[in-house]
Specification:
It is built from four helices and 66 strands. The strands form 14 sheets. A six-stranded mixed β-sheet has the order 41-43-39-37-46-47, with no helix packed on it. Strands 38, 40, 42, 44, 45 and 48 form a six-stranded mixed β-sheet that branches. Helix 3 packs antiparallel against helix 4. The longest helix is centred in the C-terminal third of the chain and has 84 residues.
């Protein structure tokens, strides 16, 4: 009977104080976007990741084993001899056999496994937009059909694409954003070659834009896409689909009974074998085909996650159908399905229903209203449920129930039983402390207890349909006898990120419940399939409660591991144990916390395929809060009771700061004050008389303010080590630059010297050549003179003068020839010296060129090293900033404990089944009870006779605090009213200011007085 409430009643003061810093949690890998968000079977391509705490992300985990990825690696460089991963960039391969459709991707890094993001596979050619494509002149040319992946970057980013079209050709242009977990609200335009806009497509209720058009003529067309308000940045992605492949718009009837098959009509565009239907959408005729669909019997535990399932749709049971690559969900009906009959738009034409049933209808055409009528018997209970918004439509249904009252003369009057419109459901933030998975809906539901047998009428309409003509907007009007049941969604505590545990630490999974047809029983929730080293105690979501929290704990020696866990819930319904599988949800964007009760808009969220948990070994949990014995201990008291819950705080490292504790999921009527926690102590819970009895599980949220935390120092050490290495390389390069500058200077000097030497040798050679020429001329002259004198001497043998002249000429010739030989030798020597000098000059020239090139290379390397050092310095600075010890606020949940709250502080023994009171007698009836929970107060007895009973005096004394037994004394007069009388015995008590009343029935019998004898 316990009904827990959310965070609001417990921690309102805290949130008033610290709304600015709750997001400064311990790091956990968070994936915000992947670009592109998919590809075609058999393709290989690169993707980039955006997110938070993506340190050392080295693995992608896909929901389909046929999709794989490897980190993109750099080539070895002069600064890094080994290939390095390109940060947050992967090469993805999609196997040819991977089925088209929606898949999931997560990334794993130093801080664990991330949340999931959509990853779509389509057997259609795909491209990634490349900037600049901001004008029609820069438009990326594509051939249809095509899927273009892009994102909004830069200021007011607008992307353009162009294609060739034919007149009359049907083209569908769809800009997907919410489907791919994007924050973008896309707006698209089809523009012709003259620059005129053919048609615009604005974001619809699903946050996406679509154009369906037949091209007006042959020629070039452009598609322009941008965010509706020109937002941009990480997470602003789009997937632009241009072509004519199948798209399902709606299915009718929208529901089939579990365990049965039925034929449904599928409406859409580009449907294989489709024919024109009677309906239009945006001026274009919808096509239709028929399909046979089987609804599984156990549909409650087999949820189809085809397409994007919003939180308000999450509790609807459904199966999936697919036409081509287009998925759609068909819901499970709650009763035999009948189709809405036309002509029921007035009360007198109300469609007759035989209960139970489920009407499949449409809010169509514009302004459509539907009337239904049925017969019911007094005392019957029927649940009337209108389901439309939960089918995914942007509808706001209204429900009117009327009773047709017929008087004795057969005249009919109409009495309104209930009118439900603008359904008021408490803000989910006040119920849960969060607003990231808001299951509220505009669909009305009503429990009708038939006051009198007769005829009743139901009127159904939709506010949105009064302004729009949309045949897709279907509804289900279910009228069924109570079928109590429940559904649940499990959401990670930090639902926009991953579920990450550190050894010795904890994280939570929030469970949201949907109670069906008045179900208000206790629900036992448990998590199974936990990885090694992780435990999770089962919890009890109290009677009538809408949420609870599973606390996951990693052992002190837990090692890194990932695993998908399974959350199930069990309850007893109509004496039978029922088990329900949880659906799993997540927010798809981070948010800034705001105060409860501030009417916050819902954060975009959806169901996901599974709930993954990871244990990381980056560090031990800085802090652990333990309640009681550290397990799911049961603490028992009663309404009005006071519990003292012992706690212990274990701090590791430098986990200082103020630790505040706030009770979560405590039952209504609980005074649960926030408290500053020391190392050990007790926390007090007080329960008043309004606290419902029963079991429920609660935990303590510990928020550590200004905790000093050093983020991933090992990464900083690596980055700083590389910075130091680059710094040393730069230092060495600068020294080498200086050395090579000196060498170049020396080479220049040597070249100058060798050039001078070669010039001198050349001059010496020229001089030797001149001297040789002169000597050779002297030889010729001496030869001529010697010849002349020799001939003269021969002609006059007797002439001694002539002979002497001849001898002198011969000697001169010999001398001249000797001088010429010496000149020739000097010339050869000068030539040899010149050859050597030229060779030395050439070698010096080459040496200078090499020295100059080495100097140029050294200076270029110094420049590159300086640039690399700047990058390394920046990386090191950022790393130091990230890892520098700083004060953060972090969330540390305690273990869960179970509260068992009894109705009363006493256990009263049964009173006698029946007590006889004879006239004229005095009878004592004992009242006995057991005191519990240290209750020492008096118990006041009150007994009151039924009306019309007299002649009996009752003395019901107060039972003092030290006693557990009393007596009710009945003094019966002779005129006591005879008969069997049911009396209520009330035991009143006060438990710590809570006034409690325990009633017990007592039956007394006063026999008829025997008639007096005439004797």
């Amino acid at each position: 009977m316990i009904k827990p409430v959310g965070l609001l009643t417990v921690v309102a003061v805290y949130f008033t104080v610290t709304t600015q810093s709750l997001l400064a949690q311990l790091p956990a890998t968070r994936l915000d976007a992947v670009t592109p968000v998919g590809g075609a079977p058999g393709s290989t391509f690169e993707i980039e990741l955006q997110g938070n705490d993506l340190d050392d992300v080295g693995r992608l985990v896909f929901s389909h084993e046929g999709i794989s990825a490897e980190p993109k690696m750099t080539e070895p460089t002069e600064f890094d001899s080994e290939p390095l991963p390109v940060p947050n960039t992967f090469v993805v391969t999609i196997a040819p056999n991977v089925p088209p459709g929606l898949h999931e991707v997560r990334c794993e890094g130093h801080f664990g496994l991330s949340n999931s993001r959509r990853f779509l596979v389509d057997a259609v050619p795909q491209v990634v937009e490349q900037e600049p494509n901001n004008t029609s002149l820069e438009a990326l040319e594509v051939t249809l059909p095509i899927i273009a992946h892009g994102r909004a970057v830069g200021n007011a980013d607008v992307d353009w694409f162009r294609f060739e079209g034919r007149g009359g050709e049907r083209v569908t242009i769809r800009a997907e954003a919410r489907t791919i977990d994007s924050r973008m609200e896309p707006r698209i335009s089809l523009v012709d070659a003259t620059g005129n806009t053919v048609v615009d497509g604005a974001p619809d209720s699903e946050g996406e834009a679509r154009i369906d058009v037949r091209l007006p003529g042959n020629g070039v067309y452009f598609v322009k896409i941008h965010d509706a308000t020109y937002q941009q940045g990480d997470g602003y992605l789009y997937r632009l689909c241009i072509g004519a492949w199948p798209r399902i718009e709606s299915v009718f009837p929208p529901a089939i009974e579990p365990g049965k098959s039925a034929r449904v009509t599928v409406y859409g565009f580009g449907l294989p074998g489709g024919r024109d239907s009677e309906f239009e959408l945006n001026g274009d005729r919808l096509q239709q085909i028929e399909l046979d669909v089987a609804m599984p019997q156990d549909i409650a535990n087999h949820v189809a996650t085809a397409g994007r399932i919003e939180p308000h749709q999450a509790m609807i049971d459904a199966t999936a159908i697919q036409v081509g690559e287009a998925p759609f969900r068909v819901a499970a009906a709650g009763a035999p399905v009948v189709l809405e009959r036309e002509g029921n738009d007035r009360p007198e034409g109300a469609q007759e229903l035989s209960l139970p049933c489920e009407v499949a209808g449409r809010f169509y055409p514009r302004g459509d209203v539907d009337w239904f009528t049925f017969q019911a018997e007094a005392g019957e209970v029927w649940y009337i449920d209108v389901v439309s918004n939960r089918l995914g439509w942007p509808t706001d249904p209204a429900l009117l129930v009327q009773q047709v009252v017929v008087d004795d003369d057969g005249n009919e009057t109409i009495k309104d039983v209930v009118y439900l419109d603008d359904v008021q459901i408490p803000n989910s933030n006040t119920r849960s402390g969060r607003h990231e998975f808001d299951i509220r809906t505009t669909d009305p539901t009503y429990r009708l207890e038939i006051p009198a047998s007769g005829r009743y009428r139901i009127f159904v309409r939709d506010a949105a349909a009064s302004a729009r003509n949309d045949a897709r907007w279907t509804y289900r009007l279910t009228i069924r006898q109570p079928q109590p049941d429940f559904r649940l969604v499990a959401v990670p505590g930090e639902s926009a990120g991953g579920l990450v545990l550190r050894p010795g630490g904890r994280d939570v999974v929030r469970v949201s419940m949907a109670q069906i047809d008045g179900f208000d029983g206790e629900v036992r929730v448990s998590a199974t399939g936990l990885p090694n080293g992780v435990t999770c105690e089962p919890i009890i979501v109290g009677s009538g409660a809408e949420m609870g929290t599973l606390v996951l704990t990693a052992a002190e020696n837990a090692t890194p591991v990932n695993g998908a866990i399974r959350v199930t819930a069990t309850a007893t319904i109509n004496g039978q144990e029922v088990t329900r599988e949880a659906r799993y949800g997540q927010a798809v964007m981070p948010w800034n916390f705001q105060q409860p009760n501030s009417n916050l808009p819902s954060v975009p969220a959806r169901l996901m395929d599974q709930l993954q948990v990871s244990v990381v070994d980056v560090e031990q949990a800085p802090l652990t809060v333990a309640l009681g014995d550290g397990g799911n201990q049961v603490f028992e008291t009663c309404r009005g009771g006071i519990l003292k819950i012992p706690y212990q705080v274990t701090r590791r490292g430098e986990a200082s700061g103020t630790l505040q504790g706030f009770w979560i999921d405590v039952p209504l009527g609980t005074n649960a004050q926030q408290a500053n926690l020391s190392d050990t102590g007790e926390l007090e819970l007080r329960f008043n008389q309004q606290t419902p009895a029963g079991d429920c599980t609660i935990y303590l949220a510990g928020f550590n303010q200004n905790m000093k935390y050093e983020r991933y120092p090992e990464s900083t050490e690596r980055i700083v080590a590389r910075q130091e290495s680059i710094t040393q390389l730069l230092t060495d390069a600068q020294q080498q630059d200086r050395d090579r500058t000196t060498a170049a200077q020396q080479a220049a000097q040597m070249l100058q010297q060798r050039t001078q030497e070669a010039t001198a040798a050349e001059q010496a050679l020229n001089q030797a050549k001149q001297q040789l020429a002169q000597a050779e001329q002297a030889v010729v002259a001496a030869e001529n003179e010697a010849k002349r004198t020799a001939e003269a001497a021969a002609a006059a043998p007797e002439d001694t003068g002539a002979a002497g002249a001849a001898q002198t000429a011969a000697t001169a010739l010999e001398n001249a020839r000797k001088v010429a030989a010496e000149a020739k030798a000097k010339l050869d020597e000068a030539q040899a010296k010149l050859d050597a000098a030229v060779k030395a000059r050439d070698e010096a020239t080459t040496a200078k060129q090499e020295a100059d090139q080495a100097l140029t290379d050294a200076k270029a390397f110094v420049q590159r090293a300086q640039q690399e050092k700047q990058r390394a310095d920046q990386a090191a600075q950022q790393a130091r900033q990230r890892s520098n010890p700083r004060n953060i606020n972090a969330f540390f949940p305690s273990n869960s404990i179970t509260l068992r709250v009894a109705e009363y502080p006493i256990v009263a023994a049964d009173l006698p089944a029946e007590t006889t009171l004879k006239q004229g007698e005095t009878v004592e009836v004992p009242v006995r009870f057991e005191r519990k929970y240290e209750f020492t107060g008096p118990v006041n007895l009150q007994v009151q006779l039924p009306g019309g009973v007299g002649g009996i005096q009752i003395n019901a004394p107060n039972i003092p605090g030290e006693q557990s037994e009393g007596k009710i004394t009945f003094t019966v007069q002779d005129n006591a009213t005879a008969g069997r009388h049911e009396i209520n015995v009330r035991m009143q008590m006060n438990m710590n200011g809570a006034n409690l009343q325990l009633d017990r029935p007592l039956v007394v019998v006063v026999p008829e007085k025997a008639p007096e004898s005439e004797n």
